[in-house]
Amino acid sequence: MKSLSESRWLRFATFSAFYFAQGVPIALLTIALPAYFGEQGRSAEEVGLFLAVVGFPWGVKLIMGPFMDRLTFLPMGFRRPWVLIAQTGLVLSFVLMAAFGSAEGDLALLMALGFISNSFAATQDVAVDGMAIDILPIEDRGRANSFMAFGQVAGYSSFSYICSFLITTAGLATTAIVCAVTVAVILVVGIVVRERAGEKRLPWTEGAAVDVDHEMDPTISTYFRQLIKVLVLPTSLILIGMELLNRIRDGFANAILPVFATQEVGVTGNEYAGLYAVMGVTAAVTGIFFGPVIDKVGAKRFLFIAFLASAAIHIGFVLMSDYWTSMPFVIGSFAAVLIVSQLIFIAFIVLAMNICQSQMAATQFAIYMSLSNLSRTVGSGILAAVGANLSFSDEFVIMGGLLIAAAAVLWFFKEERREPEG
Questions:
Q1: Predicted local confidence at residue 397, as pLDDT
Q2: Rounded to whole angstroms, how far apart are CA atoms 311 and 404?
Q3: Domains of the chain as residue ranges with CATH
């Protein structure tokens, strides 16, 4: 069987499968269980606390980067050992959850179990991203990231329904076992597929290190000095500033769209969730078709156009407020926003990957993504502070303005990948 370095489509399929695995805990912990808690009469404050605790590992996943960049087992590949460790931990975390499945009403216990599960999921995310940066040719990153993004959306969209159904009909233990089996199947994929031909599949099998160029200076202070130099390069600072503006808009949207749908349009929460899932899958499928386009025209140019297109949709939505009572118009507008947001997400990842230094890619990329997640939280916090004084029209105009500002910052981005001096 070919290795990841030898087959483009094997890379696409494998990375998509890994991202699908990430979608399984996202579905269970952030969609299915909160809905179950609501049906059991839990308060919004309790559900919010649960989400804050179980989601915490995704906000601090960058701490795993230095370990992955410096501690590995090269005979099995540079990143692959960490992917297998994280996948195995994720399977075991679901088994542990199944063992305590009878304690469905114990919120504190479920928070602890969810925290453990997401710790492995976030670790797997950092490891897979580092592997992608290391393995993917630059000309394939747009298409590959479109498949990866689709894999995650497919994972949490399908399992949000599966988990919600199983929790109410068969209980949490059965639900957790189904999740464990699904992730275990994907773990087998990780065991079978090697990064490079000639490497070991498992520590006790035949093979040897192939990519020895990743040996690093043993001095940790040298490593962090190099990392800081990389992060303060103009390319990094511009990328971070651009994503700050974009993700603040995302933080606004996460709070505004469901409120607008239920209060202004009049749909129920369940109807909104169903529509959002369908639109999310549609956006992910669209992203797959645009992956080659991103590779062809360049991530920066594509991202610039996408920012302006999304800004136009937001502002145009306000200018056509007379149609807000039309369900097809609102659904079409929301779908357009989600589709373009998916394309923005893919193009941003490509840009971030392209400027990562190979020897510290897991840490550097994890920092970019963690700051991106933090920026989204900042956006929600800003809206919470000033939202009472804003109308829906004001909020959509502000979101459009943030996207225009992000495009303006991106204009100064010059993609260059320089190795830092020691």
A1: 95
A2: 6
A3: 8-209 (1.20.1250.20), 225-410 (1.20.1250.20)
